Amino acid sequence: MVWLLCGCLLGPFVLSAAGTHWMRRRAVRWGFVDRPGGHKQHVHPTPLGGGVAIVAGLILPLLAVLIVAGLLRGVPPPPWVPAFVTVHLGGVAAKTPVVLAVIAGALVMHLLGLVDDVRPLSAGVKLPVQIVVVGVLVVGFGVRSMVHLGPVVASVLTILWIVGVTNALNLMDNMDGLAGGVVCIAGGIFAAAALRTGQIFVPAVTCMLVGAVAGFLVFNFPPASIFMGDSGSLVVGYMLGVLTVLTTFVDPQYGPKPYGVLAPVLVLAVPIYDTLSVVWPVSYTHLTLPTIYS
Predict the structure, then answer these.
(1) Cα 282 to Cα 147: distance, rounded to the nearest angstrom
(2) 198 Cα distance to chain centroid
(3) Cβ atoms within 10 A of the Cβ of 8, count?
(4) Cis ω for the linkage preceding 223 (within 30 of 0)
(5) How far is the CA of 66 from the CAs of 99, 103, 209, in angstroms?
(6) How confident is the model at residue 273 (pLDDT cuts 50, 70, 90)?
(7) Is the whole-model pTM more than 0.85?
(8) Nearest Cα to Cα of residue 11 among 214, 224, 199
(9) What's the pLDDT score for residue 294?
């Protein structure tokens, strides 16, 4: 199991790091850069496109796993396939339709972010697209949380949660290494929680996400030489939201507990608070401090 998760981390890390290095050079030639000005703190035009490398580092290995699992389903695996991998091939093949739907949603988010990086879109354009993408995943493929509340309530709350996390990471991508660092820390916690409750596929995919983001972070630590852009932040936020829904946060031996749903809220408390402070800014201008006389 340890070797499986290490492979899920290392493969995407290498692909993402190599892709980020390649994009960092090409983005400047293509003029795909984030120029300073306004609220932006960087001094020089900085390449965008880190999101392209992150998506490639995550999606390509994930598709490769699905293809291999599909080809080996129902047939004796070749001797070069490790035993700790063959044990899980059947489960991976069974989850293929849902995973393909998740991948399709990630690609739509990626394209939406690419357009926004080139020509900024309004929230009135981006938000409906996000809701439709997540709605198809939740309603069409049954990816939902809090099912004890009934299908309608569970679907609405799940859509709000995934869309909320997507935009929380998007808004948090305003400092070098911040969004990527949050994803790596939160993803590591979610992977450990899923592993603790006996899940295999969810922590493996989460490790792929962490590996892909970590490969990009090599070039994004202050001072960043490349940004992920909306093409990356929308995808990592979306994936993190989806994976929290797919993760079981309560040990089965203790039975279902409704408060398990609070676990991802606590782990993502910082980006959630950051988003709420942007959407509903609190003004303190009306407050007056008491005068202290000496």
Answers:
(1) 34
(2) 22
(3) 23
(4) yes
(5) 9, 11, 16
(6) confident
(7) yes
(8) 214
(9) 38
